[in-house]
TrEMBL record:
<protein>
    <recommendedName>
        <fullName>Testicular haploid expressed gene protein-like</fullName>
    </recommendedName>
</protein>
<dbReference type="Pfam" id="PF14912">
    <property type="entry name" value="THEG"/>
</dbReference>
<keyword id="KW-0677">Repeat</keyword>
<dbReference type="InterPro" id="IPR042401">
    <property type="entry name" value="SPMAP2-like"/>
</dbReference>
<dbReference type="InterPro" id="IPR006623">
    <property type="entry name" value="THEG"/>
</dbReference>
Amino acid sequence: MTAQPSARILALSRPKEYFSTYQCRCRPMIGGRTALAKFGYPSERLLRLAEPKKIPTAALVRRSPELSVSLAAQNYTASKRILELAQPKKVHPDFMPPREVPTQISSFATLANASARVQKLAEPLIRETTCCTKHTHPGDLISSVSRSSQKAVASPRTIELSKPKQVHAKYMPPRDPEWPVTEAAKHAVATPRVVELAQPSTRPRMGLTTLNPDAFKVKEAAIKAACSPRIEELARPIQR
């Protein structure tokens, strides 16, 4: 009953801190600042830093639209070159200013009388279409042929040029898809060679070669064959 706990036991007996209060986004900053610190009065250092920057007097002078001109500049005598450059640019001697839109007609032009030539030129140009005739009755001819044209005799050259273009002398027109078979072709007898060529190929199908046991049988002549020295030379493997 009189035993006293040690410092280690007292440290372990303290309850575990509850950190759920710091789970919100607006948790206090690290450094132990109290909640009432933001309501405190700022220090002199903060007040001095919060003051706006003062504008220098030289900047205020330059900002004024009325600049003071020095006496040397007022009493300066410009040179000929400066006076030449100070003159405004002149326009071209052939320049004509834009004319006003409502043109004023002189009294002489209003009282003038047009001549016969001017009145003739003022008339619109009438052009008649000569490529086709005017509309006529249904029974009339489209175009009338003169009597001299009806009695004209064509020259040999004109007759030659009026002939249509002829085809080649060896030209043969395309044959019809159906044509009659000649009697000689009907009674023709095929030769033995033609009959031999007309026979279908007797090659076995590829599927039947696997079922035929003699498909890869070697002939007797191939077994007894002797290769030449050249074949033996070519049969040797290449030594690299």
